């Protein structure tokens, strides 16, 4: 009886580990895709405003520094 419980426990543990790993991977992909969209949007906005307002490199540097905080 102990061996059966031990085997079932081991199988369950492996299934749970696999499920956790799979979902962590899926979550990381979702976060990465959202960040890529965010960075694309930020870049597009900066380029648009840079053309409209003739911002220089110093102003863009301030945007990046503020974004890091």
- First-residue to last-residue Cα separation: 58 Å
SSE class = mainly alpha
What global shape is seen?
rod-shaped
What gyration radius follows from the Cα positions, in whole Å?
A: 24 Å
Strand content: under 5%
Please indicate the count of domains. Answer: 1
Q: State the total count of DSSP E strands.
A: 0
SSE arrangement, N to C: HH
Largest sheet: none
Report the helical percentage.
over 70%
How many helix segments? 2
Low-confidence stretches: none
- Please state the average pLDDT score: 84
Can you put this structure into words, describing what you see?
- The chain has 69 residues and is mainly α.
- It is built from 2 helices and no strands.
- It has one domain.
- Helices cover 93% and strands 0% of the residues.
- The termini are far apart.
Short descriptors:
69 residues; mainly alpha; single chain
What's the helix and strand layout?
Elements (H helix, E strand, L loop, with lengths): L1 H52 L3 H12 L1
